[in-house]
Amino acid sequence: AQSVTQPDIHITVSEGASLELRCNYSYGATPYLFWYVQSPGQGLQLLLKYFSGDTLVQGIKGFEAEFKRSQSSFNLRKPSVHWSDAAEYFCAVGPLDSNYQLIWGAGTKLIIKP
Amino acid sequence: ETGVTQSPTHLIKTRGQQVTLRCSSQSGHNTVSWYQQALGQGPQFIFQYYREEENGRGNFPPRFSGLQFPNYSSELNVNALELDDSALYLCASSRDSLGETQYFGPGTRLLVL
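ok -> structure tokens follow
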């Protein structure tokens, strides 16, 4: 069955420290891959997406993600987090023949320590 | 360019009632998708509308229905509300081409008592 796993429900990071959020997927074919961020009271905002080509993808707000086909992973990274990065982060995958019907992970809540 | 808007922001209903949620898509977008996000979970795809026709549906019962209007705005209707329908309902709009980003509205928080 198709699924997306975000193993960490919560992650706490000190401001200025580096961040890595994990995402693993189970999918029958090579999917589209996305990372979205959701702040309280706001909708989901796309951070970055991978369709093909270079497996290291740059996104907004200084985030990047690396697609590793052999590990079925698409981990999100940021070298130095800011207090404003505190939010919930969602990984999602979708079929190559449609950019619809995304399958979502359960999310990772990022807490920033001052 | 206006973003995706949803109304109302919050809603309280009782079991068995019906509810209609509304979404205005971003200008230039002809596709609207609806998602249900229960507390502590990721969004679940309900269905998508493209040019006023349903274009894909997730694992939701028929009491979840929708409409898309000629201006590409959309409604989500839920009949015979159940307690488990309490969730954040998200609308996303996009162009219809592959690879196009979905832009999400802020959602409607529905509480069923």
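The first strand of chain A starts at residue 3 and ends at 5.
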